[in-house]
Design a protein that fits this description.
26 strands, globular
């Protein structure tokens, strides 16, 4: 039985709700250091009551591996007590101190009716080097108490990443090519980790593992790294800004455009794999995945580029085949076989220039639909967008910066620090903050949205008026970050049709209201299916039935099934946009490294 969502229990720590006053002359360092000193003493003595006194009754503790060896958001004093009773003594938290990093100094956040002090701290556990962020708020009696605690494992003790001062200092005269060829071939042994998929998620994970000395091999079905971006529709361009999209260890150069064209990203991924010395086999497919429970390994049959087979027995598998496994989701509509035009899904559409002089219908009204329709219009193609339900529209020019300001922007903090701050907000709490942000966005984008509504395009403000993020977390779509297509719809340059398609005839789509729309090409931009469907083809029903749902929010607000073992031992599903993959590739790699070192602990579930 699914536990009820905790979303309705989470609230903002406003001054009014806490019956508190804003203190005068807030010294952020003194507030942070004083609270952390009390917290450190309570932890050191194992006094859970003393720890809980420092939290609001409805405080939140989000943990990533440090205490729980999974990803949990614990809400409320009673649940936090259970966590500490189960893990505090065992984890051996010590060496707690305020971070001295210049970009991690305590800071004050303040909007009308809401104020908190945010501070970074560092600590260690029996096995991990960890960091954390806490936010304390003033209460009625003047005491500062924690509303949010975030703890995160950064690395394993005594096993740091081999980067910076730990990089290789050995001279290499004429041996590098042979060494790389031998390392990539895996002729004498199987890799400890097999990563299926050479997109950004797979490469991020491979990079994290390589510099922890864990042998890993990336399997990519396409001829070149980056083809998963290179071979998609030519108009594809990232709608996330460059500051949000860096890869581990190797940021985009300062000359990089804010919004990255797909073909440019494809070439960057290819160069990234080479520069980071990642072991990759291209033109290689997975034929079958079995599991040998007696030896705690997977048995994987690969078809290599030359047609030969190779059977490997890796300890770990990381599936990095994208949202929905890139499995198209197309509605089952009567008459499809009678239609004499062409029907494709957006994942298989390539270029608009092939259809100049034709009539095109794009079914769907979210990101891919807008990008594809805009490309058709740019090339003079008669294109109509079919909108079946309302869409959340947010402009990249004015709206998106509201959500990223102070983190992912020009002159913002280093990426790794921005990632920690971003992760420190539990998703149910982040939803409330985004509801506040959306009030500004609605004003900024008012002219565009009203223009869309005038021509019949249906809009919404996201789930519970929280913008696009929760829609992305829950279903991976439902929104469009506007880069220009909205104005084309307003101007009638992209035609609009509302309603659901009932059937096809030989040359038309017929709608529920009885109207028809002639078409030579129909592009279904209708999203992707359940990733477990393509996995069944590789792993079989028995193994896949053990997997938890992948993507969508749990009752605690954590994303389900990704970045950690998800039902089958040592099987991981790695996915997400460039930012999520960059950040959480660390967590996936740490779990694998800890398992290899015999340090991994059973995750905490209460």
């Amino acid at each position: 039985m699914t536990a009820p969502s905790l979303a309705s229990e989470v609230s903002l720590p406003t001054l009014a709700r806490l019956n508190a006053q804003r203190p005068d002359n807030i010294n952020t360092y003194d507030v942070a250091a004083g609270w952390l000193d009390a917290f450190s003493k309570a932890v050191a003595s194992g006094d859970i009551d003393a720890v809980l006194v420092l939290f609001l009754e409805d405080g939140l503790w989000r943990d990533m591996l440090a205490l729980t060896w999974t990803m949990r958001t614990i809400h409320g004093a009673s649940r936090i007590r259970k966590l500490l009773e189960a893990r505090l003594a065992e984890t051996k938290v010590d060496n707690i101190h305020v971070s001295t990093h210049r970009d991690k100094q305590p800071s004050l956040f303040e909007v009308p009716g809401l104020v908190w002090v945010q501070a970074f701290f560092d600590f260690e556990t029996a096995v991990g080097v960890c960091s954390g962020i806490f936010r304390v708020v003033p209460t009625a009696n003047g005491q500062w108490k924690a509303h949010v605690m975030y703890t995160n494992m950064e690395s394993l003790r005594g096993m740091p990443y081999k980067v910076g001062p730990l990089r290789s200092f050995e001279s290499n005269h004429g041996q590098w090519l042979d060494q790389r060829a031998k390392e990539t071939a895996f002729e004498d042994a199987d890799p400890n980790v097999l990563i299926v998929g050479g997109g950004h998620s797979g490469l991020d994970t491979a990079a994290r593992l390589k510099y922890q000395d864990v042998p890993a091999l990336v399997i990519e079905k396409n001829p070149r790294i980056g083809d998963n971006w290179r071979d998609r529709y030519q108009a594809l361009c990232l709608h996330d800004p460059v500051w949000y999209d860096h890869l581990p260890y190797l940021n985009f150069p300062p000359t990089w455009p804010v919004y990255t064209p797909a073909q440019k990203l494809a070439d960057w991924l290819e160069s990234y794999a080479h520069s980071m010395e990642l072991n990759v086999w291209t033109s290689t497919t997975v034929q079958k995945i079995d599991r040998d429970e007696s030896k705690d390994v997977f048995v994987v049959t690969l078809i290599k580029a030359d047609g030969s087979k190779r059977v490997m027995r890796p300890k770990h598998i990381v599936m990095a085949i994208g949202l929905g496994g890139n499995e198209p989701k197309i509605p089952d509509i009567p008459g499809t076989s009678e239609f004499q035009g062409k029907i494709v899904h957006s994942v298989n559409h390539k270029r608009a220039t092939d259809y100049v002089g034709k009539r095109v219908v794009v079914v769907g009204a979210c990101t891919a639909a807008h990008d594809i329709a805009q490309d058709f219009q740019r090339h003079g193609v008669d294109v109509t967008m079919v909108q079946r339900s309302s869409t959340c529209i947010i402009s990249v020019k004015k709206g998106i910066p509201v959500f990223f300001e102070g983190l992912y922007e020009e002159g913002g903090p280093p990426t790794e620090i921005a990632d920690l701050i971003n992760a420190s907000f539990p998703n149910h709490l982040l939803k409330l903050i985004h509801q506040m942000s959306m009030k500004r966005v609605i004003e900024y984008d008012k002219e565009t949205v009203e223009g869309l509504n005038r021509v019949g395009f249906k809009t919404n403000n996201g789930d519970d008026d929280a913008g696009f993020l929760m829609m992305a977390w829950q279903r991976g779509g439902g929104y469009y970050l506007d880069v220009g297509a909205s104005q084309l719809i307003i101007d009638g340059k992209i035609k609009l049709k509302n309603g659901s398609v009932k059937s096809f005839t030989t040359d038309s789509l017929v709608f529920e209201d009885g109207s028809a729309l002639k078409a030579d090409l129909v592009v279904f931009a209708t999203g992707l299916g359940d990733v477990r469907i393509p996995l069944k083809k590789l792993m079989g029903e028995t193994l896949v039935s053990r997997l938890s749902p992948i993507w969508g929010l749990t009752n605690e607000g954590e994303l389900s099934g990704v970045w950690r073992t998800c039902g089958v031992p040592n099987f991981y599903y790695m996915m997400g946009n460039l930012a999520l993959s960059r950040f959480h590739s660390t967590h996936t790699a740490l779990q694998i490294k800890a398992t290899e070192a015999g340090l991994y602990t059973t995750p905490y579930y209460d």
